Amino acid sequence: MSGASFPLRIRDLDLPKPLLSPRQMRLGAWPEEVPAVWGFDELAGRLAELSSLGPSATLTLAFRVLRDAQSKGESVAWISARSSTFYPPDAAKSGVDLRALVVVRARGGHGAVRAADHLLRSGGFGLVVLDLGPEARVPMAAQSRLLGLAQNHGAALLCLTEKGAHAASIGSLVSLRAETRRERIGEDRFRCRVQVLKDKRRAPGWSDLEIYRGPAGLR
């Protein structure tokens, strides 16, 4: 599984109240005064990619989006193309409501993409996380279909991949691509940052961070 998870937050993120509906967001009504915050509202109606290579906080920052979406009453699904998935106790300690989380174990990337298509097409999910791992492949036709479904339903599709910042994204239809970074700042304290590399809605280069207490043994 990519990225370590950090179950205990040092501070709770006070996310601003959404100023726009998902429909307004996908129609491009996005005023500059709305601050960039790594959360559900920023990803609604988009195909996004969160990547990492080496020490990272991919799970932590993915859990942050899940927590935010659930706090807004959105149904959330996690689809894994891997043989293993996240550690549920860590997700629960990060504030994710496991009772309201749909988890799908797919047979490889093709099965994971098909599952994402079915869930988004149902219109019943506000956020779908697609954990693709190091061998991430999403055909262009599938990207187009998934993006259209996300826009139609005001949903967010967040793809998790393992690659460096200079590697290409999974496709040109990715609206936002970011990488995660983790930095030790104390004995058991870590600064977890999301750095945006590409953003079709805003200018790229913005970042967001939180400070977490890491699990025992993390270096």
Layout of helices and strands, plus pairs?
Blueprint: E1 8-9, H1 22-26, H2 40-43, E2 47-52, H3 58-71, E3 76-80, H4 88-93, E4 101-105, H5 108-122, E5 127-133, H6 140-153, E6 156-162, E7 176-184, E8 189-199, E9 207-213
Parallel strand pairs: 2-6, 2-7, 3-4, 3-5, 5-6
Antiparallel strand pairs: 1-9, 7-8, 8-9
Helix pairs in contact: 5-6
Task: Describe what is shown at a glance.
The protein is α/β, with parallel strands linked by helices and 219 residues long.
Descriptive tags:
alpha/beta, Rossmann fold, 9 strands
Question: Can you characterise this structure?
Answer:
The chain is α/β, with parallel strands linked by helices and 219 residues long. The chain has a single domain (37-213), classed as P-loop containing nucleotide triphosphate hydrolases (Rossmann fold), CATH 3.40.50.300. 26% of the residues lie in helices and 27% in strands. It contains six helices and nine strands; from the N terminus they run E-H-H-E-H-E-H-E-H-E-H-E-E-E-E. The protein has helices at residues 22-26, 40-43, 58-71, 88-93, 108-122, 140-153; strands at residues 8-9, 47-52, 76-80, 101-105, 127-133, 156-162, 176-184, 189-199, 207-213. A nine-stranded mixed β-sheet has the order 1-9-8-7-2-6-5-3-4, sandwiched between helices. Strand 5 (127-133), helix 6 and strand 6 form a beta-alpha-beta unit. Helix 5 (108-122) packs parallel to helix 6 (140-153). The two termini are 16 Å apart.
